[in-house]
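Input record (one chain):
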Amino acid sequence: QELRLKKATDFSKVYKFGKSYNHAELFIKSLKNGYKTSKFAVVIPKKITKSAVKRNRARRRVYEILRINQPNITSGYNIIITLKSDLSSLTPKQLTEILLQGLKKLEVII
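The corresponding structure, as predicted from the sequence alone:
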């Protein structure tokens, strides 16, 4: 919970000034926040899937990967992950590889 990015001002700063990574499945924006912890947000547009159950399941999958890899993630970043497709077709291993690849490109992960 404390690792969630919630404030609208934080979102707008990340979208405006953050570095980005683009993949067919997801889009990641990151920006240094000056704090000791990194904060995350997972955004899933209704356009992807109308079902709240599927959106929440995809969100939980991404948050779980971030939780497991928390020790490797550099502190002091605000990170927004926007999903571009329904992740139900991806295996957990594939999703982890895509997400970690994006975080490495943005130099957020060790």
